[in-house]
Specification:
The chain is built from 4 helices and 2 strands, in the order ααββαα. It has helices spanning 2-14, 18-27, 79-110, 117-141, and strands spanning 31-51, 54-74. The protein has a two-stranded antiparallel ribbon. The chain is flat and about 125 Å long.
Amino acid sequence: MGKLSILIISILLYSCSAQFHLNKAIKKGYKCEETGDTIRIMSVDSVPIIINDTIVWDKFITTKDTVIQYKNVYVPKTRIQLKREYKIKIKTIYKDKVVEKAEAKAEGKKNRPKGNLNLLFVGVGIGLLLSWLWKNGIKSII
C-alpha cells in the first residue's frame, strides 16, 4: 500500500503545469494582449443662480474620463479548421463558375440567330445537282 501511494503522489507531482500548457500555446501562435481604452462620459449639470430676485439655472457640461482594461485573445486556427475553410471557399468558387456557365448558355440560346432551315436544304440540293451535272457533263463533252 505504501509503494502504491508513493507512485500515485509522484505521478500527480510530475503532471504538466499550467505554465507548460501556456508556453505550448504561445509557440503555436496564441496571443493575449491586455489593452486599455479611454471612454469620455459627458453629462449636463445645472446650478441655480440668483440674479435680481430671480432664479436662473446655469447649465454647463462636465466630462469624466474612464479607463477600461480588457484582454484581446487571438487563438490560431487548427489545420482541420483551415482545411474546412479552404474547401468551402473552393466550393463557392466552383458554384459561381457553374452559375456563370448556365447564364452564358441561356444567353447563347436567347441570342442565337434564327435562320431558315429550308434555305439550308435548298443550298445542299443545288450543290448536289451541280456536282452531278459536273460529273455527267464532263463525260458527255469528252
